[in-house]
Design goal:
The chain is an alpha/beta fold and 149 residues long. The chain has seven helices and five strands, in the order ααβαβαβαβαβα. Strand 4, helix 6 and strand 5 form a beta-alpha-beta unit. 25% of the residues are buried.
């Protein structure tokens, strides 16, 4: 019996099920949390880890860009806007100009003005959440972006 004859034995649904079972599962994607405030950064990571997400953190733009270069599994970045020495808007622009330009980004900020919010949305971010963050909404966005519903 040839392989083609074997294929005819299986229905399309059975072939799909077999492909899912035999395909190696991709490692879970990682969330990168960027904030220059250590307490905020750690709290967000702890919360996301408690919800089952793998999480890395960076204390600013340069550390975030280094993480993005080193770790291809990062599928989502959550960043603050108000950071020193480089703000979150600059970081988002740098990411959009890099090989990681398609990265999903959620912005979390304590205060902002309308122009800044518009600038951020023009850079194609998923959402803009004001601090204190609605954690339920944040987790729903993370799940949606990483497709881990």
């Amino acid at each position: 019996m040839t392989m083609a004859e074997h294929d005819e034995i299986l229905s399309d649904a059975e072939r799909e099920a077999l492909a899912r079972v035999s395909a190696p599962s991709a490692p879970p994607q990682v969330v990168l949390v960027v904030d220059d405030d250590a307490a905020t950064r750690e709290a967000l990571c702890l919360y996301l880890k408690a919800k089952g997400f793998e999480c890395l953190s960076a204390d600013g733009a340069q550390a975030a860009l280094e993480q993005l270069r080193r770790n291809r599994r990062i599928g989502l970045m959550i960043t603050d806007l108000r950071m020193a020495p480089e703000d979150g808007l600059g970081l988002i622009r740098l990411v959009r100009e890099s090989e990681r330009a398609e990265l999903s980004i959620i912005v979390v900020s304590g205060d902002t003005d309308v122009k800044e919010a518009v600038d951020v949305m023009h850079l194609g971010v998923v959402d803009f959440l004001l601090k204190p963050v609605d954690l339920g909404k944040l987790v729903a966005l993370v799940r949606k972006e990483l497709r881990s519903e």
